[in-house]
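Recall from the previous lesson that a structure prediction takes nothing but the amino acid sequence as input. Here we apply that procedure to Flavin reductase-like, FMN-binding protein from Hyphomonas jannaschiana VP2. The sequence below is the only information supplied.
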Amino acid sequence: MQPVSFKGFAGVELKGDAFGSPDDPAVLLIHGGAQTRDVWDEVADALEKAGRYVIRIDLRGHGESEWPADQRYEFNAFVEDLRALLAQMASRPVIVAASLGGWAATAALGEDGGHLAAGLVLIDSVPEMDFDAACRPDSSGMHRASFDPAFTRGFDPESAVARVTDAVAHIKVPVLFVRGTKSELSGADEASRFLGNFENVEYAEIREAGQMVAEERADMFSATLLDFLERRVPRFAPEYRQGSDARTLRDALGCFATGVTVVTTLDKAGQPVGLTANSFTSVSLDPPLLLVCIAKTASSLEAMEAAENFAVNVLHIGQQPTSNLFAKSGEDRFASTPWSRGHNGAPLLSGALVNFECRRYALHDGGDHVILVGEVIRARFEPRRDPLLYFRGKYRRLHFA
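The prediction returns the following tokens.
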């Protein structure tokens, strides 16, 4: 076990422990309100033995984490703490979170997208949760947390309900919801209603356990958690070998993050044509060359092969609709897209991050694609915008830690 520390919202220090090798798949454990990271003792041990890299942290105002002098314990502070913490991790973890921690994780993933985590495990984290019960010491003596008394005075659970409810429908990662059958935080009916809003969720009940299920029945909870992880977020990486499933190779190639471009030219009739392409790269500065790869099935291929001039328009984060439009066939792509003619006549999309105006330099066969090499004649770019990114089959945006 190694101590770890992260900077949370407004610089609040979040302290915790790490178990196992950082090269293994990561699991982030987040306790509930009025608890500390100690509730995860047995679960962390089981995860480490199963080959997972485990990080558990104390929430702000709890345990060894900083108790902020300004006593900021509104729900948004916990959500922003989690976003900041995830930005400092070297890989996307599966988040395992209880009650308040689960609320914060649900809001962060639903509002910012699945790129923050590889999976989500919620323990009794429905919006209708009885927050007073969650913060009340239990009769077993297990719930002996050290936390700032200002937390219970300053936290308004009602402020979290709407955000958690709205965020659920946007979570795309695999989700497991776990509930102890004797939990006082919520009933099975509330859990069922909540889970109906998820796209990809599993449900598990742990018998003879209350809201402290990860501590009261650590053996059963760990077994349930590990079963979910091995099925939905497996420890061993997929492998492609020549002749095997091409989808696996495609997924492997998708691990290389790219920008997104729209390649444009004029057809023989002088009409603008274009298509979305993320297989784009610079080739040379002397002479100034770049290349794009065009699928042989693309309807624009004939025009691209015949054209002496073309343009590559690199899209910014606000141009995702443009990317989607030019990725579809049978659409009048330029009817609703502002554009102008460049110096070489090729269509330039207005407001793009970069417009490269090119003269055809070479064409090469590239299997099921044609490799189009262009000599850059002119380039204009917008330094104040951020790029639209594509990674593992989804649009992304830059995240500044």
